[in-house]
Design brief:
Elements (H helix, E strand, L loop, with lengths): L1 H9 L6 E3 L4 H11 L5 E3 L7 H7 L3 E3 L9 H8 L4 E4 L10 E3 L5 H14 L3 H10 L2 H13 L7 E6 L3 H13 L3 E3 L8 E5 L18 E2 L13 H14 L7 E3 L2 H4 L7 E3 L12 H4 L6 E2 L8 H8 L1
Parallel strand pairs: 1-2, 3-4, 4-5, 6-7, 6-8, 9-12, 10-11
Helix pairs in contact: 1-5, 7-12, 8-12
Amino acid sequence: MPLILEIIERAPEWMHFLVVPYDLLDYEWGEEKFERSPNVTVVTPFSVPMREIYASADILIHPTFLSETYGKVVLEASLAGLPVLSSDRGNLPAHVRYTLPYDAGPEKWIEEISKVVNKKPNTIVAVEKCLNKPEKALKVVMENAERGERLTDMKITWYSANYPGVVSAISSLAALVGAERINSPEESGDMLILGGWNRQYEKFLKPGQRTWVYFCSNLAQVEMDVTNSEKELLLQLRDLYRKGMIEGLFVTEDQRWFNELVGIRAVHIPAVVPDYKFEKRDKLKGGNAACFFSPHPRKNLLVQLAACS
């Protein structure tokens, strides 16, 4: 947000910014912050369909400091034929034509915005590029889902931070394995999924229910060198495993974290990239509890979902 504020404050008068906050708190903060800015409109969250917002814009600016895999807003804007200028974090450069370092400075961002807007990119080309990128990964997901056992008799307890990308990922996993999704500790089911770090996961652990899956989505999480909270949760889950409260297989892509799992069933899998075939999938079949940690910026969430199936 600080970078966006600097861009808006220094932008020329002809640049008009349409700000779409995540929630009402951000909206109220944004209204107060931009109330004297004639070139800014703050949209009430969920009041206008995003399709209309994309249609009214000339460019989507996405100066995120997070490592995105498949940023949902970026994909939606591309499908709408809208050029995207994003930071070069995570997997975004594989999907976005125009990128800048996050710390390039507001002047450089403003300069690049002007260039992209004046290029008037071909909408059809932009949409085709967006559609073709995830096609291979999606094919792998569907092939693995057809071969794998569908968990239609299971109930999924889903607990997640309410970010669109994380919610979408968890919903996709529930649909992929054919399970019913519930979202309440009182109705806890056979499979537990947590999207991102959350200290309240213990509310879902019930005596006598020992089949759980923990799914840590880094779809829109801060890079792993910024916070140790994910490792802290891994260690807590490891201790629960040793106490017999959960059981199954732990999976990690980070060798440093794998070293913390000595003495329990664990598999170290190299960083997942879009064309990875998941040769070790057979080792996952026996797992009743799986922990997915994906700090690598080129991870592919879709292939991980295929493994879960």
